[in-house]
Amino acid sequence: MKVIELSGLADMALRLGAALIIGGILGLNREIHGKPAGLRTHALVCLGAAVAALISIHSPTGIMTGDANAISRVIQGILTGIGFLGAGVILRDPAGHITGLTTAATIWVCAVLGVVCGLGYWSILITALALALIALIVGKVVERIAMRIFKRNQTEPPDHGV
């Protein structure tokens, strides 16, 4: 199998463009479901994570470096920081119902996929994106079927009375 080598600028544009598109795809799912963090939010989270990953592997001269410690610290910072953004979309109403967990998880996954784009791990990216889309699209159907089978009362929070 022949590997295609890209110039530094083309490679960077591919990685950042992929992050923007991947984040947009996942954000579109949230947008369609009327969630406050939609296409633009997810696209920007993914792009920002990709930029952070890229700067961790490039020196100021443009030469790629492989300092695992630097890359690890950048990834840790992204995942910690993105938790605060995700926490902002999680809400609990007075009745105890919690909303926004899926959107928060999708924002977190977008950050991880942005890192993957920035580092150029394309096979991981395609596999993870496909699995995330399956979880978002098929997951709702599976949840509805499970609710019918187990006849869970949705008017009462799961921890009510405990």
What does the model show?
A two-stranded antiparallel sheet has the order 1-2. The protein is mainly α. The protein is built from 5 helices and 2 strands; from the N terminus they run αααββαα. It has one domain (9-150).
Task: Using brief descriptors, characterize the structure shown.
162 residues; 2% strand; elongated; single chain; 69% helix; 5 helices; mainly alpha; two-stranded antiparallel sheet
SS class: mainly alpha
SS elements, strand count: 2
Approximate helicity band: 55-70%
Biggest sheet record: 2 strands, antiparallel
Please write out the topology:
Elements: H1 8-32, H2 39-57, H3 68-87, E1 91-92, E2 98-99, H4 101-119, H5 122-150
Antiparallel strand pairs: 1-2
Helix pairs in contact: 1-2, 1-4, 2-3, 2-4, 3-4, 4-5
Outline:
With 162 residues, the chain is an all-alpha fold.
